[in-house]
Amino acid sequence: MMSTLERIGIVPVVVLDDPDAGPDLAAALAAGGIGCAEITLRTPAGIPAIARISAADPGFLVGAGTVLEPRQVDEVADAGARFVVSPGLDPEIVERALARGLEVLPGVATASEVQRALRLGLDRVKFFPAEVLGGRAAIEALSGPFPGMRFLPSGGVTAANAADYLATPAVFAVSGSWMVPRSDVAAGDWAAIEQLSVDTVRAAAVPR
Ligand SMILES: O=C(O)C(=O)C[C@H](O)[C@H](O)COP(=O)(O)O
């Protein structure tokens, strides 16, 4: 599964207000070349949207974002999520996700958190909030003592800097909300999201 996220290379971070919009949004992303999405639990629409997307297109890799409580891991797993992302590192969430067979990407911002992730058996984490933490240079610095750890930078990543992040061997994919503006999602402007996805895939293209 994680090799699929790595192959796609770009993970949209989605905030949905209407769960019924989920399948259309996923179809727009896929048409633009991005076959995955992290549906955040920041709105009550998140979990039902995951269920609708997973039912509509089993080939689309849907995961849950902003997972803050261990019980939410079970809720999103039951809804069909295949990976779990958190802004920070909570061992209970990591352990619950692994027990449910889900890939889990907790957020780390410091060397201490990378060490905790290693102790939990992980070799991939999210690096959040990437730009304010120092971006690519910060990831490269962390890679010194942690050569086996690979990162998903998120927070301030855009089409303009995605290729630079992806050129870092320690980066396995990038994530962010820039190709799914909440206003376009709310308006159902799927053509706009498809175009942003196409532009993103083009801008992020680096030999990998
Ligand atoms: O919701 C989560 O689980 C998060 O950890 C945060 C998101 O990954 C970032 O908020 C995306 O950042 P932007 O692309 O700058 O909007």
Share of helical residues: 40-55%
The CATH topology: TIM Barrel
Highest CATH level, the class: Alpha Beta
Q: Report the strand count.
A: 9
**What percentage of the residues does DSSP assign to strands (E)?**
15-25%
- Runs with pLDDT <50, length 5+? none
Shape: globular
> Which sequence of strands runs across the widest sheet?
3-2-1-9
The arrangement of helices and strands along the chain is HEHEHEHEHEEHEHEHEHH
CATH superfamily: Aldolase class I
Organism: Protaetiibacter intestinalis
Pathway: Carbohydrate acid metabolism; 2-dehydro-3-deoxy-D-gluconate degradation; D-glyceraldehyde 3-phosphate and pyruvate from 2-dehydro-3-deoxy-D-gluconate: step 2/2
Subunit structure: Homotrimer.
Family: Belongs to the KHG/KDPG aldolase family.
Brief rundown of the structure:
The protein is an alpha/beta fold and 208 residues long.
Question: What does it look like?
Answer:
The chain has 208 residues and is an alpha/beta fold. It has one domain (2-204): Aldolase class I (TIM Barrel). The protein has ten helices and nine strands. The protein has a four-stranded parallel β-sheet. Helix 2 (22-31) crosses helix 3 (46-56), helix 2 (22-31) packs parallel to helix 10 (190-204) and helix 3 runs parallel beside helix 4 (70-79). It is globular and about 45 Å long. The mean pLDDT is 96. Residues 13, 40, 65-66, 85-87, 107, 128, 154-157, 175-178 line the site of 2-keto 3 deoxy 6 phospho gluconate. It comes from Protaetiibacter intestinalis.
Topology:
Layout: H1 2-8, E1 10-14, H2 22-31, E2 36-40, H3 46-56, E3 61-65, H4 70-79, E4 83-85, H5 91-99, E5 103-105, E6 107-108, H6 111-119, E7 124-127, H7 135-143, E8 150-153, H8 162-166, E9 174-176, H9 182-187, H10 190-204
Parallel strand pairs: 1-2, 1-9, 2-3, 4-5, 6-7, 7-8
Helix pairs in contact: 2-3, 2-10, 3-4, 4-5
The protein binds 2-keto 3 deoxy 6 phospho gluconate (ELE).
